[in-house]
Amino acid sequence: MTEKADLQTVLDRAAAGGRITPEEALDLYRDAPLHALGAAADAVRRRRYAGTEHIATYIIERNINYTNVCVTACRFCAFYAAPKDTARGWTRDLDDILRRCAETVELGGTQIMFQGGHHPDYGVEYYERHFAAIKKEFPQLVIHSLGASEVEHMARISEVGVEEAITRIHAAGLDSFAGAGAELLPARPRKAIA
User: Fold this and answer.
1) How far apart are CA 121 and CA 131, in angstroms?
2) Bridge partners of 177?
3) Going by DSSP bridges, is the β-strand pair 111-115/176-177 parallel, antiparallel, or unpaired?
4) Class at the top of the CATH hierarchy for domain 61-193
C-alpha cells in the first residue's frame, strides 16, 4: 500500500497531465479517497476540454433515510416496516436529519437524497417543513429527492393536487426529483413487482 503523501503526489502528477504507472493506478484505486480521485479527474477534464462544450462533473451525495415506515409493502423491498410494526419501524427527527446534513457538508458533500417511501402520516407539510429547515441551515446543499409515487402519496395525504404538492415542496427547497423507481415502468411489470 502506498502512503497518503505518495498518493497525493501521484494524484497531483496525474492532474497536471503526467503519466502514472499501472501500479500507481492500482494504488489509487485501492487507497485514494474518492473525492480526491474525482477532483483530480475533474482537473484533467478541465485542462483537456477547456473551451469546449464537453461537460462532466461529479457530486458527493448522501442518502438520508428519514423513515422506514411505509404503507406500500412492495414485494422487492426489504427496507420497509409496516406502520404498526413498532419493533422494526423508525423515523429520524429533524435534529438527526440536520446533523446528517452537517456531516455531509463537512465531508465535502454537495447533495442529499432524502428517501423514505410512503409514510401514512407524511403529507406535503412534512416535506415543506423538512426541506425548508435543510435549506435554511445548509443552502449550499442540493436536495435531490422523491419519486413520482412519493409525490402522489403526499398529495393524497394532504388532500391537494399533485401540481400543488410539487409547487409547494419546490418552493420549500426541493431542487430536483430522483424518479428512478418502479413507478417509471409500464403498468404490467410494475404491478408484478410492487
Assistant:
1) 17
2) 145
3) unpaired
4) alpha beta
Q: Measured between alpha carbons, how far apart are the two ends of the chain, in Å? A: 46
From CA 89, how far away is CA 178, in angstroms rounded?
A: 24
DSSP code of residue 131: H
Instruction: Kindly state the cell numbers that stand for 135.
Output: 435549506
Give me the residues paired with residue 142 across strands: 111
Instruction: Read off the pLDDT of residues 144-156 as tens digits, 9 standing for 90 and up.
Output: 999 888 999 999 9
For residue 145, give the nearest of 116, 119, 187, 122 by alpha carbon.
116
- Provide the grid cell at 138: 445548509
Q: 157, 81, 90, 86: which is closest to 126 by C-alpha?
A: 157
The overall average pLDDT reported for the chain is: 89
Q: What is the pTM of this model?
A: 0.70
Give the number of residues written for the chain.
194
Give yes or no for a contact between 58 and 41, defined as CB atoms under 8 angstroms apart: yes
Ranges in the chain annotated CATH 3.30.750: 61-193
| 91 DSSP 8-state letter | B
- Phi and psi angles of residue 103, each rounded to the nearest 5 degrees, phi first: -60, -40
Q: Which three cell numbers stand for residue 98?
A: 440536520
Are 89 and 82 in contact by the 8 Å Cβ rule? The answer is yes
Of 91, 88, 112, nearest to 101 by C-alpha is 112
